[in-house]
Amino acid sequence: MYVEAMSKICSSKWFCTGTNSIYIIHTSLRRYTIYFYCYFLQAQWESDPCYAFYGVDGTTCSILTYLSQTEDFCPPQDGRNHSSLPWHQKPQAHTEKAISNNSSPAIKFIRSRVEKMSERWIQAGLRMKESSNNTVSTQMRVYVLLYPGALSGSVGQHFEAMVERGGPLGELVQWADLSACLTILGHNLVFSAAPGRGSCPIQRPLTFDLIYTDYHGLAHLQGAMGLAFKHYQCRFRILDSFGTEPAFNFASYARSHGYKTLWGSWDLQPLQYMTMFPHTPDNSFLGFVSEGTVRKGSELEPASYKKDRIAVVYGKQEYMWQGKYEYVKVISEELETHATVYQPPGHTLHLPSFIRNHGLLTQEHFQQLLRKAKLFVGLGFPYEGPAPIEAIGMGCVFIQPRFDPPHSSANNDFYKGKPTTRQISSQHPYAEKFIGKPYVWTVDVTNKTDIHEAIKAILRSESFTPQEFTCVGMLKRVLGYITHQNFCSKSVPTWPPKSALRVHLGPLGQSCVSACRRSSLVCEPALFHHLNTPAAMLPELNHLFPSYSPWGRQCGLQQEPLLFSCVAICLDSL
């Protein structure tokens, strides 16, 4: 029956729901070719993720649209040229939510997290709809591709192997929560692990309004798209855990001033980089959702768990424990200390005898352990992951080492080559500075008295989840970005409005971030263009471009908007 139906559609004419286009195919050879591809794609469209990249979802209409717009086997359909329509006003290619059928551990983790938290996301969406008018209208629905490049090719194979051995899951948490967030906001979503690679080329205008990817995916897409890459780069949003500062992003400046690294140099708007934590206002804070909240009545509130005198150590690889024996021993004198260190087959772990090791746990079993624990113990690595926020939300207090001197690309191999000059004062600077005591304790791990005093205080604490790491918090953030961030426009940013601008004097040796924080304000790079004029430069101002030099009595204006920077520090006179 299927072959007969497809033969009728593909042999002489075809019609797609939602369009008024009927095409006649004249030659028998052409009829046979189209029939073959219709049949092949109906049966095999999931065999290569690049088909989903172009919107193929197994339906006849999506297949014929692909054959028309991408492969040139069918005449173009009138009214289907997505790239010529205004931003946010493109027709819906399809409303189904698609996800790669990849059965890899990483995809399984993402799917499992989305399914497990689906009820929470739905309730958050309903609460947000009831409490405000910020709902997604039909005109604001966008067609989105999620492409985690770290899961494809040789990089993907290495990442998958790390996941199975207890490697980093932070990126997967963020991809899962972004998928759920965009779905709840009503956008058309395609999740693919390898677009533009394999069976289908990138040769026609992309149908996606937004493309969320990472640095690996960005390189893949550039290779597949060729010269067309520049045309579409305003649509990219880069999931970038540690952030990319403007000096590293602007390629010519990075080359000439010693900021060129393996990452960066893409000449994007710095706000197109989306971070796991709010490292710098120069980038957009995407975040994720902590699972440490439960439903109580009509609200989602911090969970309350019955706690035992248990500490869980944050470190799933044996090398992370090196040099931390005395630190963990002091903790074990007050609390039964558990670990989840991965043990390779045939390998003997050399952990302290007072540690109860569970081996690598599933996410569900790991969270069950956290719900019983009172303390989550940071060893100093991994840096800036989501686990401490999850643990705090489940009623644990997070204790971590203080770094003296701070870690940075100048003295630390992990940060070396990363496109940031940040100096990390602890394992988790966000938790240290924005949450702090009594939920986060940052200690000198060589000082036993410091550790003992922290443990005594910790035994009296309760759970806490920052609002920005709830479902509602992330929904509001992403909605704001999609509504207001339009990097394809040539006009100056209009969000935030100029009325939000407050000008403050910053001394030499201090960044705009620090100067604003002292006044309980936030540096906003989108407002820099209001200051980048001679009229705005007053004699008493002295900050990095745009700035005024009291020595030379001259204004310094920024000629390259991509270099507007909140984190840059003016150390010398201009």
TrEMBL record:
Enzyme Commission no: 2.4.1.155
Q: Could you list this entry's UniProt keywords, alphabetically sorted.
A: Glycoprotein, Glycosyltransferase, Golgi apparatus, Membrane, Signal-anchor, Transferase, Transmembrane, Transmembrane helix
The pathway it acts in is:
Protein modification; protein glycosylation
Provide any one GO MF term from the record: alpha-1,6-mannosylglycoprotein 6-beta-N-acetylglucosaminyltransferase activity
Ranges for the Glycosyltransferase family 18 catalytic domain?
50-568
Top enzyme class, one word, equals transferase
What is this protein identified as? alpha-1,6-mannosyl-glycoprotein 6-beta-N-acetylglucosaminyltransferase
Q: Which organism is it from?
A: Oreochromis aureus
Encoding gene (name): LOC116319832
